[in-house]
Design brief:
- There is one protein chain.
- The chain has eight helices and eight strands, in the order ααβαβαβαβαβααβββ.
- The protein is α/β, with parallel strands linked by helices.
- It has a single domain, classed as Vaccinia Virus protein VP39 (Rossmann fold, 3-Layer(aba) Sandwich).
- Strand 6 and strand 7 form a beta hairpin.
């Protein structure tokens, strides 16, 4: 039986905020602001239209909903039943096509549906679970040979401590205090190692930067704080 790779306190924290997922002025405002950048970066590399996509740790469905509107057939999974209800309600109200949600872990779904998805996304989640390497392995199991896996998380660096915790949570109040724990943040080299151990080939990376004065976000090559990695599961012919 698969041990549940989840932190009860983390689940409770996000469940308490579930009703605010689609409030553009809530604690989730930064996710709404960066979502177009993330979506465009993913779509540029794998062209989502017509693909079977899985969003792990989907929360209220911000990325899952937008991938479906880009033409993908999307399954979003999470362990917060409250967040999933919000995601389902939003899809119903917005009339979003080809998106469904399930309460199941990445590891549990990997046992049930191995190699079933063209694209697997796992965004802003790895820093919230006890064993991130286990989630990466599950992603590798879930994606089809030749398929894409996308991760986003926060680097464990002095700069990220100052900007993502002290700045965003305590000075600017962009996020609830305690959203991130410095010890759980993941260096790009560590995430790259998890990918290689899971049999994934790294293909691309991008940093996500933010100007708190202008409220502008943009992609760059700077992975000091927020960053994304793109990887592929080798095809049989590779």
């Amino acid at each position: 039986m698969t041990t549940l790779n989840a932190d009860a306190a983390e689940l409770a924290k996000f469940s308490d905020l579930a009703h605010r997922w689609w409030d553009l002025d809530s604690e989730f405002k930064p996710l709404h602001q960066i979502n177009p950048l993330r979506l465009a970066w993913i779509d540029k590399q794998c062209h989502l239209s017509g693909l079977q996509a899985l969003d792990i740790g989907c929360g209220g469905g911000i990325l899952a909903d937008s991938m479906a509107r880009q033409g993908a057939h999307v399954l979003g999974i999470d362990l917060s039943s409250k967040a999933l209800k919000i995601a389902q309600l939003h899809a119903l109200e917005a009339g979003t096509p080809n998106v469904a949600y399930r309460e199941v872990s990445a590891e549990g779904l990997a046992e049930e549906m191995p190699a079933q998805f063209d694209v697997v996304t796992c965004m802003e989640m790895l820093e919230h679970v006890p064993d991130p390497a286990s989630v990466v392995q599950a992603c590798a199991s879930l994606v089809k040979p030749g398929g894409w896996v996308f991760f986003s998380t926060i680097n464990r660096s002095p700069k990220s401590f100052l900007l993502a915790i002290v700045g965003a949570e305590y000075l600017l109040n962009m996020l609830p205090r305690g959203t991130h724990e410095y010890a759980k943040m993941i260096r790009p080299s560590e995430l790259a190692l998890y990918c290689r151990q899971a049999g994934l080939d790294l293909r691309n990376s991008a940093g996500l930067e933010h100007n708190p004065l202008t409220q502008r976000y943009w992609l760059s090559d700077n992975t000091d704080v927020n960053y994304m990695l793109a990887a592929r599961r080798p095809a049989a012919t590779d």
